[in-house]
Amino acid sequence: MTAYLKAILTSVSIALLTVGCAGSPERPETVRQALFALSERAAGRLIEASPLPDPPADQVLLLSISEVDPSFGLGTQRVQESLMRALLGLSNGPQVLDWAGIIGEVAGDNQWRLDSRLEADGPRLTLSDRTLLPYRLRLTLRRPGSDAALWAHEIQGAFDATAL
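^ that's the sequence the OP posted. Answer follows.
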């Protein structure tokens, strides 16, 4: 009888584990969703409006180190990782590499450098129930080894301070 009971408990445990894995969200469900949502908007705008050739899956984006205003209390790495996840999550999107100047001045025709800068766009706005942090995210697409911008875009909004 105990062997039978162990077999049932093992089966139930495996079933619960499987259901837990199958039901888990594709994106991280945390209070930090605001940063990821911003990154998704940025990734979508890059694919829609930039001069990246079609199909973007044949292109390589070299993500330079993000510049982040310290007043947000976000680390550069956190913003960088969020943007990278959003770009990698695009259907048929480009290949993405975390780039810190490792590729020299000469790059392939399919390589593009994406610079990002997250900066405060005004003072903190204190409401009765929360504080809002206005931001501006600047994206610039360049060729590796060149400072000439081939495409630039800005996204403005405000983070709820509790979401960071």
